[in-house]
Q: What sequence folds into this?
């Protein structure tokens, strides 16, 4: 990943756009707003999960769920950056949950964010009855969010207080940061708490790593394609399933603006539409959503 990754974070929002007591939140869209819950209280901060109800074709069958994690270089971003994707997944029949995690500022590092992501999966499974889904969960992550969700099932969770089964049963990743072993930006965000390689998903792929579908541009200079290839090669070598959908001539988040991939995003419409379709098809193959 390019060390200029930090300057990408503010532009990403434009491109991608405990108990069950809900917290109040501003309505983002004029119709069909998500329900907001506090899933974790940590260091005086309330972390929220925004739940989008699925389209229900058969009320007798409980739907599956998907948790979504935004990008932003671990240091910026918000759950609403994934609201558009969450609505698509809800339209496909999933309970879609956009998750807030701590950003790397002050003493907070990506390790803390990973602990939040693990806690979000644990919370969702614990509350599956109240949230009205089956308990089966996929994970969706963009860029740095892709790193975090993939790390739950490769690196593992930092806290021993969490249960063993916290990660997803399937991964959908969009321009993910899967090999951060030599990434200068990520290393600095760790603030000396660990070596970057210790939190690099590609270096910790397991035989139990769940089926993964990746969307990636072949000209990506922020989260280079080589990292996604290494991850996929290791998954398949261990007998797992990893689908790598590569789009020629586009960069990070499928931008056509190759000269400035850290800003001024111009996603290729055809590549973006195909990537979305590939992710939905992958979910159908895994029987996470019904076939059309």
A:
């Amino acid at each position: 990943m390019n060390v200029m990754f930090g300057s990408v974070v503010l532009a990403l929002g434009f491109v991608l756009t405990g108990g069950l007591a809900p917290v109040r939140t501003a309505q983002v869209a004029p119709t069909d707003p998500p329900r907001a819950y506090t899933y974790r209280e940590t260091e005086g901060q309330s972390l929220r999960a925004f739940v989008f109800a699925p389209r229900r074709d058969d009320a007798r069958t409980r739907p599956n769920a998907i948790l979504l994690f935004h990008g932003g270089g671990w240091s910026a971003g918000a759950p609403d950056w994934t609201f558009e994707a969450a609505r698509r997944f809800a339209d496909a029949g999933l309970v879609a949950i956009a998750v807030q995690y701590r950003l790397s500022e002050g003493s907070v590092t990506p390790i803390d964010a990973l602990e939040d992501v693990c806690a979000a999966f644990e919370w969702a499974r614990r509350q599956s009855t109240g949230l009205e889904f089956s308990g089966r969960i996929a994970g969706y992550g963009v860029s740095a969010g892709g790193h975090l969700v993939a790390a739950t099932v490769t690196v593992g969770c930092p806290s021993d207080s969490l249960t063993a089964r916290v990660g997803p049963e399937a991964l959908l990743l969009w321009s993910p940061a899967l090999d951060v072993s030599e990434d200068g930006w990520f290393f600095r965000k760790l603030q000396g708490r660990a070596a970057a390689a210790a939190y690099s998903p590609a270096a910790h792929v397991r035989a139990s790593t769940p089926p993964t579908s990746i969307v990636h541009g072949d000209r990506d200079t922020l989260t280079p394609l080589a990292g996604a290839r290494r991850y996929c090669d290791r998954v398949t070598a261990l007998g797992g399933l990893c689908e790598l959908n590569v789009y020629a001539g586009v960069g990070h988040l499928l931008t056509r603006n190759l000269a400035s991939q850290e800003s001024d995003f111009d996603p290729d419409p055809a590549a973006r539409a195909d990537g979305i379709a590939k992710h939905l098809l992958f979910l159908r193959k895994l029987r996470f959503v019904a076939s059309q």
User: Anything to note?
Assistant: The domain at 3-285 is CATH 3.40.50.1820 (Rossmann fold). Residues 213 and 243 are 5 Å apart (CA to CA).
